[in-house]
């Protein structure tokens, strides 16, 4: 069985199709957005520039765990939870990021690469990692869903989830959904490049902005930068630079 691919022709169609993909506290559909349709659906440790055979990514994780321990700001003891924490902070691991919120996935599918089609993956895991008993070298966990507590506000807003890839360069196996055997467990929504800007604007109307996705000082800066780029683009299209200052800008003038 192959993944089912659906090209999104309009914003109206996008919203209507999301009604068919429900998330039920982890047991439903999970979502992932990628801004370039040519990228593979693999975790960072499984991509060519980071991939090491024979589970050596786990050795690199252990090295990180040893050196990062003095800086941990949360109390984590369980292996998979620590692996997810390392992934959350940028380590190349065998975990792939997903979200319970399709609009968050949509944000990542349109937030970059304006000239390329984006993708939203919709995946239905049926096996889940038991945080209490599972070991990171355990067999039979490829494609399993991993649900951990949110480590911070960013993960909370993004409703972050993970899939396990064992080995890291292994793609997810497309299989029938147990309760709907005629449907695959992986659907791919294609966001055409020409639809990206409109979808990004609509996501902003819904509050799915850089500030929401990254709820910290860096996220505020991302949001202001994105807003500035939009203002500059509109100004260029109108053929004239804006001739007024906002209230906040006038506060910092020399007058």
Structure in words:
- This protein is of the alpha+beta class and 255 residues long.
- 35% of the residues lie in helices and 16% in strands.
- It has 9 helices and 9 strands.
- The strands form 3 sheets. A 4-stranded mixed sheet has the order 1-9-4-2. It has a 3-stranded antiparallel sheet with strand order 3-6-5.
- A hairpin with a 2-residue loop joins strand 7 and strand 8.
- Helix 4 crosses helix 6.
- The termini are far apart.
SSE order and pairing:
Layout (H helix, E strand, L loop, with lengths): L3 E4 L3 H8 L11 E5 L21 H13 L10 H10 L6 E5 L2 H9 L7 E6 L21 E2 L6 H6 L1 E5 L11 E2 L2 E5 L1 E6 L1 H13 L4 H4 L3 H22 L8 H4 L5
Parallel strand pairs: 1-9
Antiparallel strand pairs: 2-4, 3-6, 4-9, 5-6, 7-8
Low-confidence stretches: 243-255
Largest sheet: 4 strands, mixed
Instruction: Tell me the structural class.
Output: alpha+beta
Radius of gyration: 20 Å
The dominant shape is globular
**How many E strands?**
9
Number of helices: 9
Summarize the structure.
With 255 residues, the protein is α+β, with helices and mostly antiparallel strands. Helix content is 35%, strand content 16%. The protein contains nine helices and nine strands.
Labels describing this entry:
four-stranded mixed beta sheet; globular; disordered C terminus
């Amino acid at each position: 069985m192959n993944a089912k691919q659906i090209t999104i022709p309009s914003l109206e169609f996008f919203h209507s199709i999301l009604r068919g993909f429900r998330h039920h506290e982890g047991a439903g559909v999970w979502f992932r957005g990628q801004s370039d349709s040519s990228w593979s659906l693999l975790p960072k440790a499984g991509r060519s520039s980071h991939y090491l055979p024979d589970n050596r990514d786990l050795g690199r994780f252990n090295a990180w765990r040893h050196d990062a321990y003095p800086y941990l700001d949360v109390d984590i003891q369980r292996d998979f939870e620590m692996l997810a924490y390392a992934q959350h902070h940028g380590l190349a691991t065998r975990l792939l990021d997903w979200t319970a919120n399709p609009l968050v996935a949509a944000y990542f599918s349109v937030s970059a690469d304006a000239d390329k089609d984006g993708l939203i993956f919709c995946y239905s895991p049926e096996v889940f990692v038991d945080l209490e008993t599972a070991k990171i070298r355990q067999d039979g966990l490829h494609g399993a869903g991993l649900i951990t507590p949110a480590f911070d506000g960013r993960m909370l807003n993004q409703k972050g989830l993970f899939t396990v890839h064992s080995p890291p360069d292994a793609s997810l196996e497309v299989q029938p959904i147990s309760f709907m055997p005629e449907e695959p467990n992986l659907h791919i929504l294609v966001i055409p490049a020409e639809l990206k800007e409109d979808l990004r604007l609509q996501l902003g109307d819904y509050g799915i902005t850089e500030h929401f996705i990254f709820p910290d000082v860096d996220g505020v800066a991302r949001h202001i930068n994105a807003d500035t780029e939009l203002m500059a683009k509109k100004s260029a299209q109108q053929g004239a630079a804006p001739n007024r200052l906002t209230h906040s800008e006038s506060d910092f003038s020399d007058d």
